[in-house]
Amino acid sequence: MSALHGRVHRYGDNVNTDVIIPARYLTTSDVAELAAHCMEDLDAEFVKRVRPGDMIVAGENFGCGSSREHAPLAIKGAGVGCVIAARFARIFFRNAINVGLPALVCPEAAAKIQSGDELVIDLGSGRIENRTQGESYQAEPFPKFLQQIIAAGGLVPYTRRRLATR
């Protein structure tokens, strides 16, 4: 897997799926429409600031609340390359992988990284380099099969490719 480069957007603990993508936008599954409202109720300026490849870093229990797939889709659609948190809600973590959005668990990184920091992430090894602070952190790397799902763009494209090679 290739390295990711991006700038950090930092949030705290218990970022709920209702603030990642408010329920009033759940009438669509259009990724561009979801992305246009990503983080709207928590950070109204997020979609104006985020650039392709940027990262979200948060504390404990990121993605808690509803089990909607719309939340990681909105984040990915907004151009976010990776979410790093001290801990994820289990269903959010699985939904993120299913849509091809890397979600790294790294409490040390989540505690030290600040908004605006520039990161380089090697998803294959789980290494997070904070170029702004001159530090590096070690997240638990994804197992090979999850790396393959993420690289394929999610579970559905991964499965289609696997079935096509049979």
CATH architectural category: Alpha-Beta Barrel
Helix proportion:
25-40%
Q: What fold name goes in the CATH topology slot?
A: Aconitase, domain 4
Strand order of the largest sheet: 4-3-2-1-5-6-7
Q: Approximately what portion of the residues adopt beta-strand conformation?
A: 15-25%
Number of DSSP helical runs: 8
> What is the succession of H and E elements?
EHHHEHEHEHEEEHH
- Biggest pleated-sheet summary: 7 strands, mixed
Q: Got a strand count?
A: 7
Calculate the terminal CA-CA distance, rounded to whole Å.
Answer: 24 Å
Number of domains: 1
CATH superfamily: Aconitase, domain 4
Rg from alpha-carbon coordinates: 15 Å
For the residues shown, what is the average pLDDT?
Answer: 95
Describe what this molecule looks like in 3D.
With 166 residues, this protein is an alpha/beta fold. The protein has one domain (3-164): Aconitase, domain 4 (Alpha-Beta Barrel). 34% of the residues lie in helices and 19% in strands. The protein contains eight helices and seven strands; from the N terminus they run E-H-H-H-E-H-E-H-E-H-E-E-E-H-H. The chain has helices at 17-20, 31-35, 46-49, 70-77, 90-99, 107-112, 144-152, 155-164; strands at 3-10, 55-58, 82-85, 103-105, 118-122, 127-130, 135-138. It has a seven-stranded mixed β-sheet with strand order 4-3-2-1-5-6-7. Strand 3, helix 5 and strand 4 (103-105) form a beta-alpha-beta unit. The longest helix has 10 residues, at 90-99. The two termini are 24 Å apart. The relative contact order is 0.18.
